[in-house]
Amino acid sequence: MSRQDKPALMQILQHTPEFKPYEVEVAEEVIDGYLQDQQGTGYYALVAEDDSKVAGYVMFGQTPCTIGTWDIYWIAVSEEVRGKGIGKALTKAAEEEIKRMAGRLIIIETSSQELYENTRRFYLSQKYEQVARIPDFYSPGDDLLIMQKRLN
Ligand SMILES: CC(C)(COP(=O)(O)OP(=O)(O)OC[C@H]1O[C@@H](n2cnc3c(N)ncnc32)[C@H](O)[C@@H]1OP(=O)(O)O)[C@@H](O)C(=O)NCCC(=O)NCCS
Questions:
Q1: I need a labelling partner for 73 at 20 to 30 A (CA). Which of 51, 57, 96, 110 fits?
Q2: CB-based contacts of 141: which residues, under 8 Å, 6+ apart?
Q3: pTM above 0.85, yes or no
């Protein structure tokens, strides 16, 4: 990810129905932090292009105080080009990077809301399994779902 990618990424985030405005704000803060000091944040970021246009991104990082556990914090693909394998390619690329850095377990947190049905199906198709649920975590009726994938 480079500075030139940011405007297109913000467009994607702002037009992603799953993300609430305050989530987009947090995503922007994370992107800004990464662009200012890539090493300092401990985040890794990969951007996908489709037809030479920014089509999506993934951000991930090692989970503090663990040995070989990583989190995929954000993934988003432009609504216009969903279903073309871009999310899968981003996830695969992140998994390869994580493996290269001796990662063994990937955790993804997501929401139980109906709006995230596609997202949950996507993770399941990429062989992530739901291992925990915290009821009412995000708000009453909106549970946190924890998904994981072992890399070996
Ligand atoms: C989730 C997301 C990243 C998927 O990206 P995508 O480029 O559309 O997904 P792909 O085209 O790579 O699909 C890959 C696989 O997921 C499956 N999949 C994707 N969308 C699906 C859907 N709506 N229903 C069922 N399966 C789906 C595909 O069938 C495919 O399966 P395969 O690997 O067996 O071929 C994208 O939809 C997105 O940006 N969602 C909004 C943001 C979001 O929710 N982020 C996560 C926050 S926790």
A1: 51
A2: none
A3: yes
